[in-house]
Amino acid sequence: MTYTKDYPRIVIVGAGFAGLYAAKELRRARGLKTVIDRTNHHLFQPLLYQVATATLSPADIAQPIRAILRGAKNFQIFLSDVEEIDIEGRQVRLSCARTFSYDYLILATGAQHSYFDHPEWEEVAPGLKNLSDAIAIRNRFLRAFEKADQAVDIDEIRALTTFVIVGGGPTGVELAGSMMEIARNTIADEFRNIDPRLSRVILLEAASEILPAYPQQLRVKTVQMLQRIGVEVRTLAKVTAIDAHGVSIGDAKISTRNVLWAAGVRANSLGRQLGVPLDRAGRVKVGPDLSIPSHPEVFVVGDLATVVDAKGQQVPGIAPAAIQMGRYVARQIIREANQGVLAGQLERSSFIYSDKGKLATIGRASAVAQIGGIRASGWFAWILWLLVHIAFLIGFRNKLMVMISWAWSYLTWGRGARLITESPNDKSSADSRQTA
Amino acid sequence: MTYTKDYPRIVIVGAGFAGLYAAKELRRARGLKTVIDRTNHHLFQPLLYQVATATLSPADIAQPIRAILRGAKNFQIFLSDVEEIDIEGRQVRLSCARTFSYDYLILATGAQHSYFDHPEWEEVAPGLKNLSDAIAIRNRFLRAFEKADQAVDIDEIRALTTFVIVGGGPTGVELAGSMMEIARNTIADEFRNIDPRLSRVILLEAASEILPAYPQQLRVKTVQMLQRIGVEVRTLAKVTAIDAHGVSIGDAKISTRNVLWAAGVRANSLGRQLGVPLDRAGRVKVGPDLSIPSHPEVFVVGDLATVVDAKGQQVPGIAPAAIQMGRYVARQIIREANQGVLAGQLERSSFIYSDKGKLATIGRASAVAQIGGIRASGWFAWILWLLVHIAFLIGFRNKLMVMISWAWSYLTWGRGARLITESPNDKSSADSRQTA
To answer: Which residue in A96, A187, A416 is closest to B150 by CB distance?
Structure first.
C-alpha cells in the first residue's frame, strides 16, 4: 500500500450539493471519510426563497448531515470552519485548531453574495444564501408592512411598501413573484391603515434581459407572467447607488426602504489559499478531472469551481451540476482506492456535464421550464417544478411537509410561516400621533 | 352616550392566551378594538418545549395575530412594546411614541423567567418563554453533542453531555423527558467519538416533590416514568450557585456545561405602573371581576394577574385559566357597551375558574393527566394529551403539521427540526489535536 495508513483518508469540506453527494457516493468506499461543515445541516438552496417569503420553515429545507449519513461506516462529521489549507503538507486546519491530514481533499465550500465594488450595499440590500439570510429577509419583508401600517406620512408609507429586487436571475424572479403575491393576496385584507395591494415590487436587471441562461421564448414568457401579477420589470437598469432611502439607476431614483440583492455571487475565499489560477468571481480553475494543477489529490467542486467540460460546455452554478461534480470525483477516488494506487496514477475520464434542463417559478401555478428540447411555461411547467423539487428534497418528512405546505398555500392563498422573530421594531420609521 | 366617541375604545395589550381570547370574544362587540403585541404572532406556549427539543418548527406553534383576526370588524393591530400606562388619563403610550386613549384596557402581558436574587444566572442558565429562547436552547442542546464529539478530555466530554434542568414543574419534566429521549434514541448512533446514550439528564427540584400542583399518585408515577427512561430526579435540591462549569447544591457540585432554567416566573413589569398592590411574583392583585381597585375600566388577565375566585380557588397560571379570564372580561365589556353605560355601572358577576384538569407529558407514549376525578398515566394519558393540544392549537395548517410531526417522530424516533442556526462554534471547548 502507498498511503500513510493502509486506507485513504478523504476530507470533504462543505456539505452543500457537491460535498454531500460526494459523501453519499463515498459511503461504499474504503477509507476514513471526514465531512467538515460550518453548520450541522445540508441546505436545499433552491427553495431558500420560500423560507424568505414565509411559505416554508427552515427545518423543511434542511436536514442534519449526521442524519443523512447515519449508519454509513467510517465517517466522521465535524462542525467547524476551515482556517487554512496546507496543499503541500496535505493538511486542513480547522478554526477549532484541530488539523486533519488527507490523502484526498474535496473542496466544496460554494459561493456567497458579491456586491462587486460596493461592500457598503450589503447592510441595506441583504442577499439570500443561507437560513439566517432567509429569516432576516422574511423579518424585514413582513415588518415593512407593520411599519407602513403605523406610519402617517404618505411618502413614508410608499417607500415602506416598495420592494426592489436587484438581479433578474432565477432567485430574483422567484422572490419578486412570491412577494407580489403575498402583498396582493395573502395579507391584502389584514391591515386597517394601508392597502397592501398598492405595494410595488420592482425587479431590476442590468443586462438587456432577465433570466439570461434561458431561451428567448421563455424569457419573454417570464416577463409577461411577472407583469400579469403586477411585478414591474426593468432591464438595462444598472444600479449606481443604494442607501437606506432608495436605489439610484443613474439619475433616476426609486424611493424604497426595502432592497434585496440577487445580483452577483463570488466564490468562497478558501479557493484563494490553493495558489492556483482563479476566475474573476474567485472560482478555482480546475482541470478536466476537477482537480487542481499538479495536485491530483485535491478536487474542487460545485460553485467554488469553474470548468469547461470535455464537450466544451461551461458548467453552470446550479444544484444538478454540483451533484454531478460531487459524484464524479467520488467515483475517481473509489476507483483509485480500490486498486490501491495513489491519487492520479490511473488515467481519469474527463468530467462531462449532463444538462437536465432549467426550471424557475414565477408564482402561483406559473413557471418556465426547459428540459432537453422541450420548453414549457405556465401551469404545466409549474407542476414539473413541484415534482422535481419534491423528488430532490432529502428526507421523507421534508418531502411530506413541503408538499402539504404547498397544497395549503395553493388552496388558501396563505403562507404558513409568517413570523417576525427579531426584537420589536426600532423607532426609526414611527412617529408620534394621538390616536382615538 | 357616555363615551368620548359614540362607541367604546378597547385596548388589549398582549396577544397570549388571555389577550387573544378576549380579542376573539370582542369580535362581536361594538367599538374600536386595538390589539398591541411586541410580536406579530400568538404563541402556543404549551408546546414551546417541543421547539426547544427540535420536534417542531417555530411556525408550527405560532400564528400571525392578523391572520387570526382577519375579517373581524373594527380591529387594529399594533406591533410595538408598551412604554407607559397613564391610568388616570386613560392612555397607553407605545415605544414607537404613539399614544392610544381607551375606554377599556385589558392588560395581558404575561410573565417571564425569574432568577430570584440571582440575575447573573440568566446568562448560563437560559429559560424558556418565547421562540427566541426556544431556538437558543435548541442550538445549545444540539451543539453540546457536537462539541463533545470534538473534545478530547474525558471530563470535558462528560460536562458537555450532562444536562441539568432546574425546576420540576411541567416545563422541567417535559424538557427532561424529551432531551433524554433524543440522547438515547434519536442521535444515539450518529457520533463517532462519543456515545450519546451515556448522556445524563438531571432534573432538580428545591421542594420535596416534582409537579407540586398534581395529585400525589401522579407525582409518583411521573418520577417512575422519568427514571425508567433514564432521567435522574433529585428533590430537595436547592441550587445555590450556577456558573459556566456547573451547578452547586450546597456543597455538592454537578459538573455541566448545560443548565436550563425552569424554576420561577415573575409577572411582566408593566403591572408595576398601575400603582396597585402586587404579590411577591409581581402579579397584580385584581378584584373578583378581574379589574383593579377604583378602575373598573382596567382589567388584568392571564399570568399578569393573581386572583382567588368566588369559589375560593387560586386561579393557576396555565393556558385554560388565561383563556377563561380573557373571555370573561370581554363579556363584561360587551354587556356594558350594549347597554351604553360606562365601565362598572352594571353590577358584574364574579369570575369563576372552571378547572378542566391538568396534563403533562414525560416522553414517548407517556404522560400524566388529571381530569375531574379521573387520574390517568402512561399511554392513555399521552393520547389525551395529544388530542387536547391539537384541539387548542390555532389554525388548521398548524394542527395538521404538528400531527404529522408527532406521527413521524413516533414512528421513526426522529426529530424534524434538528437545526443549529447560530454562527459556527466558538473556540472555547475545542482543542488542538492531530487527527489521522
So the answer is: A96
